[in-house]
Backbone:
């Protein structure tokens, strides 16, 4: 391990863009299929990994939704999230905001309660075991209707005190933020924060909609905002956090090569960019791997990496006093790791 590798592993950080269903490793997929008596269309773990060659977002989503079908019980959701938190803790993650897609499960007849209670119990364990703070983001699937999103919001009602934010994911192009203006307004009324996937494959216009029509607190991905200097200026002056996911961008062909990834150009343009893993089991790496990959490909030094970690805390949905606690852990780490 190089000095920079170990600096990255130890660097206290938050992960803000993580789909918990996307942390389902092939090994766990097999063991849950067996536990639930379900067949999966792969014979071996190697075959599963070989299927993870995507040329766009939809290619990935088709396989990702098929994989999620092994998740049935509260215990399954608990085990899934517990595995993620353990892996994230090893990467220096001290705060995680995890997204989940209830419709992927309720549409297969799994009760909302099974999904969320399993996740919440793993979150409580992560706090006890690793001292990690965690929050839940409920995502609506944008390829479905706004009416279906309203029904999901209604199902979530008994747990709204344990859900921090609502999000919007799945197939972006053709499903602009405007399609969901009503349900996000309703979520806002209930005190929830809002973060939307925008500008991953969709045009800069979707990022404008997320800001102007939805009032998004954060933008997930946002890569294509870089095509519009006026939008970059706006995101920068309004200090909107972008949750950028380099290995995801590479796997889904949002960038052709990590050597061309815009992460440092984003920071230099004044954008509050952060680094995240998105769907680590599918994209070949957890958050630490994302830091290491862009550090190598773009020649980032400690200054950039620290800025990214700092942005991960200030861009989180934690209350200010908890952000201050995490930032003081970052500062203590930095004081103990002065370049020598
Ligand atoms: O990167 C993503 N984009 C859209 N939907 C998703 N669902 C999981 N990951 C993603
Ligand atoms: Zn995502």
Residues:
């Amino acid at each position: 391990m190089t000095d920079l590798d170990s600096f990255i592993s130890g660097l206290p950080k938050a992960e803000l863009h993580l789909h918990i269903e996307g942390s389902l490793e092939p090994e766990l997929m097999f063991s849950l299929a067996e536990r639930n008596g379900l067949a999966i269309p792969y014979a071996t773990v190697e075959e599963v990994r070989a299927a993870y060659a995507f040329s766009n977002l939809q290619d990935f989503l088709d396989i990702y939704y098929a994989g999620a079908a092994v998740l049935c019980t509260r215990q399954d959701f608990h085990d899934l999230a517990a595995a993620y938190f353990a892996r994230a803790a090893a990467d220096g993650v001290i705060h995680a905001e995890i997204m989940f897609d209830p419709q992927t499960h309720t549409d297969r007849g799994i009760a909302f309660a099974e999904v969320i209670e399993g996740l919440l119990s793993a979150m409580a364990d992560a706090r006890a075991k690793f001292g990690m703070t965690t929050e839940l983001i409920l995502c609506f699937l944008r390829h479905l209707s706004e009416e279906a999103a309203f029904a999901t919001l209604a199902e979530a009602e008994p747990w709204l005190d344990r859900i921090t934010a609502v999000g919007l994911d799945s197939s972006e192009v053709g499903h602009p933020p405007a399609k969901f203006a009503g349900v996000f307004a309703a979520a806002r009324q209930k005190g929830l924060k809002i973060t939307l996937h925008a500008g991953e494959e969709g045009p800069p216009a979707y990022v404008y909609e997320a800001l102007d029509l939805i009032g998004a607190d954060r933008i997930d991905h946002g890569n294509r905002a870089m095509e519009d200097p006026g939008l970059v200026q706006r995101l920068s002056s309004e200090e909107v956090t972008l949750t950028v996911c380099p290995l995801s961008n590479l796997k889904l062909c949002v960038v052709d090569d990590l050597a061309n990834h815009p992460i440092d150009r984003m920071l230099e343009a004044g954008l509050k960019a952060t680094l995240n893993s998105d769907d680590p089991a599918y994209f070949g790496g957890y958050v630490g791997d994302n830091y290491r990959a862009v550090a190598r490909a773009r020649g980032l030094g400690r200054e950039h990496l620290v800025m990214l970690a700092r942005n991960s805390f200030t861009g989180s949905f934690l209350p200010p006093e908890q952000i201050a606690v995490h930032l003081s852990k970052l500062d203590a780490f930095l004081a103990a790791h002065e370049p020598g």
Remarks:
- The domain at 3-336 is CATH 3.20.20.140 (TIM Barrel).
- Residues 17, 19, 169, 197, 220, 278 surround zinc ion (ligand 2) (CB under 6 Å).
- The beta strands are 13-19, 93-100, 133-141, 165-169, 193-198, 218-221, 241-244, 272-275.
